[in-house]
Design brief:
Elements (H helix, E strand, L loop, with lengths): L2 E10 L3 H4 L4 E12 L2 E7 H7 L4 E12 L1 E7 L13 H14 L4 H17 L2 E7 L4 H13 L4 E4 L1 E2 L12 H15 L5 E7 L7 H13 L4 E6 L3 H10 L6 H6 L8 E5 L5 H10 L2 E4 L1 H6 L7 H6 L3 E4 L11 H14 L6 H15 L17 E4 L5 H7 L5 H11 L5 E6 L2 E2 L1
Helix pairs in contact: 4-5, 5-6, 6-7, 13-14, 13-16, 14-16, 15-16
Bound molecules: guanine and zinc ion.
Zinc ion binds next to strand 5.
């Protein structure tokens, strides 16, 4: 039976970075009809009520009905070490991350954290994530099993590392290829799950391992590939010593078959002109992780510059280098980074990044990221007055965006009224 939900419905006609804020429409008395996991109609509440008299109706009043949030770069195994104090990238990895990731050799622990992670992301209105697992194949199984049980569209891959990591956290070039291939065959295309080929980053892979994963990618071109690029200056200097003949950081990937249209490059803060040119030519996606970039002390991503070049940009929490599970908090951080660079991102642009922008970065924008007929019915319903502080800030609002912006800047999981996964309320 069809389900009709009513509220202020947000949808996109285009890219607000190209067309301006008017590319985002909010129908203040709108509705969405869902059936069979999909959106079958959108429009005015009264019209839809008349067209679907049999539908079950839920009226969310003044709440905002949005596409579910899409978090384009996370590490679900770092759930338990989020908000760990006092380190920068390399010593943060060695002190907090690697000891925690070693624990994922235990399938029961991996399952516990995967379930905890999805409970947290769903309570924050995030309906799709693209995650790194650990080197353990069991950690990939745990992630996809938990996602499949919840009916989610989800992306992940086995993180590959064959040097500069603890003994319990290394594979080899061959086992990385073999395990990734087996997991890809097992999970890629099952329900709404997609396997992502995942070399962690150049410092923890030998050239042989990067080449093996480049070969796997060329043999499986429907898969995305994710990695980290130019996050911190110390890291870039280290990459130079490990790959002395590479032209730059990106070249360590490019020369091993790991630069392409389906490539997702996390952070990408300190890019050189050649790197920007090549990423643009290849149509790659950059993933902006603003809370992480502040928390680990990495730097200020150049949103305006990369978007002006036509690069696809997604937005992400980077849990647990990022300091929040919330895409609302992540939008706020992106706004703050923009301010520090002299650019005030419009709330319509921030919202687009957290939904359609990330969906487009994952090449999933014909399925998720928008509210339109034929899209998968992954939705979040947002209370625009979820705390007294937010509620009083909206009282002076004269436009819909002025009433949304306080929730962007101050909202958290208390703003999430409801989440729909493939048309079913979670
Ligand atoms: N670079 C390599 N691994 C990681 C990671 O787990 N988190 C972040 N933020 N950067 C990385
Ligand atoms: Zn990361």
């Amino acid at each position: 039976m069809a389900e009709l939900i009513l509220g202020q419905v947000l949808s996109y006609h285009g890219d607000p970075f190209v067309l301006g804020p008017d590319a985002v429409q909010i129908n203040t008395s709108g509705g969405v009809v869902m059936l069979g996991g999909e959106i079958v109609a959108t429009g005015n509440a009264d019209t839809l009520r008349a067209q679907y008299p049999q539908a079950t109706v839920t009226d969310y009043g003044r709440a905002l009905i949005s596409p579910g949030f899409v978090d384009a770069h996370v590490h679900y195994p770092q759930t338990a070490i989020i908000a760990s104090w006092g380190k920068r990238l390399i010593d943060w990895l060695n002190t907090y991350t690697f000891p925690e990731e070693i624990r994922f050799a235990d399938p029961a622990y991996a399952a516990e954290i995967a379930n905890r992670y999805f409970d947290l992301t769903l309570s924050h209105g995030t309906t799709t994530v693209c995650s790194y697992a650990t080197i353990h194949p069991e950690s990939v199984d745990a992630f996809f099993t938990a996602a499949q049980t919840r009916g989610l569209r989800a992306y992940a891959g086995k993180t590959c590392m064959d040097r500069n990591a603890p003994a319990g956290l290394q594979d080899t070039a061959k086992s990385a290829y073999d395990d990734s291939k087996r997991l890809l065959q097992k999970w890629h295309g099952q329900d709404r799950l997609s396997y992502v080929i995942t070399p962690r980053f150049s410092p923890t892979s030998t050239p042989d391992q990067l080449a093996a994963l480049g070969a796997l990618w060329s043999e499986n071109q429907s898969c995305l590939m994710q990695t980290h690029l130019s996050e911190q200056l110390d890291e870039i200097a280290w990459v130079k010593t490990l790959y002395p003949t590479a032209r730059d950081y990106l070249d360590t990937y490019e020369s091993h078959g790991l630069l392409g249209m389906g490539g997702l490059y996390g952070h990408a803060i300190h890019l050189e002109p050649r790197e920007i040119d090549r990423l643009t030519e290849m149509g790659a996606s950059l993933i902006h992780c603003p809370t992480s970039n502040s928390f680990i002390g990495s730097g200020l991503f150049d949103m305006q510059g990369t978007i002006a070049r036509g690069l696809r940009v997604g937005l992400a929490t980077d849990t647990g280098g990022g300091s929040s599970f919330s895409m609302l908090r992540t939008m706020a951080a992106a706004y703050e980074v923009g301010q520090l660079r002299g650019v005030s991102l419009h709330p319509a642009q921030l919202w687009w990044l957290a939904t359609m922008g990330s969906a487009r970065a994952l090449h999933a924008n014909t399925k998720i990221g928008n509210i339109a007929k034929g899209m998968e019915a992954d939705l979040v319903v947002i209370d625009l007055g979820s705390t007294p502080g937010i509620e009083q800030a909206t009282r002076r609002a004269q436009t819909i965006w002025q009433s949304v912006f306080p929730t962007i800047m101050m909202g958290d999981d208390r703003a999430i009224k409801a989440v729909y996964i493939a048309g079913t309320r979670a």
